[in-house]
Structure formats: structure tokens, C-alpha cells
Design a protein that fits this description.
Helix 1 runs antiparallel to helix 2, helix 4 packs antiparallel against helix 6 and helix 5 runs antiparallel to helix 6. By secondary structure, this protein is mainly alpha-helical. The relative contact order is 0.10. The model has no long low-confidence stretch (mean pLDDT about 75). Helices cover about 75% and strands about 0% of the residues.
Length: about 140
Amino acid sequence: LASFVASVAWGLYSNYNISLSCGKSSISVAPIFILFSGILMALISLSVSEEAQWSLKTCLELAYASIFPSAVSYTLWDIGMRKGNSTLIASVSYIIPLASTVFISIFLGVPLSSKIWLACASVIAGAAICLFSISEPLPSLREK
């Protein structure tokens, strides 16, 4: 249920982003979207019977994950896609899976297997192929 709601919310955000920001290319509605999506997911989680154990560490980890990787990255992505070179931004964004995999591996103390490193290298190679295969940059939202 939560995945379905998240996918519908993301679809709505993607389609109505321009109108929600009143057509101003400098305003990002990503933080508002993430806040309301988080509230909605929290309400949905109350209807699911699961055993949750909250601690100060858990709350701090949740706050960090909500603010830094999510809100900041979506806001920067939104602004970058409106004002920057969308081809470069889209290509460079593929480094995120590698960075998050390495970070979580270090955080949890789990060694990365060769298969994970191969998968990360494949993602980066695919991004490089995409970047170099496009002869001209994609238009930014600002040009439309």
C-alpha cells in the first residue's frame, strides 16, 4: 500500500511540479512534497500492525535520512533540472547508488562483495555511456 501511494504521489508531483511552483523556475516545491509524503506515509504506517522500537538513535537516523539525502538532494535536483545542464545532472546522478551503497556499508559495518562493486561499476558505466552518447544537451525546463 505504501509503495502504491508513494508512486502515485511521485507521479502527481512530477506532473504538477511546474504549476505547484507557480511557474517560477527558482522555487522548488520538493521540500513541501517530501514533508507531505512523509506525513502521509506516517499515517499509513499507523494502520499496519508491526512492532516498532523507537530510540533516540532511531529518531536521529530518521531525521538525518529525511533532511539530508532526501530533502536536500530532491531540492538540488529540482533546481538543477530547471536551471542547469539536464544531461550532465542526469548522468552524474547515477553516482548516488554507489555513494549510498558505500555509505550504508560503512555505517552498518557490512563488507561489500565483488558482486555489489560490479553492480555499482555497471551503473556508473551505463551513466557514462548515456552521457557520451547524447550529441546535444537535453533542454532544461527553463527553455520551455
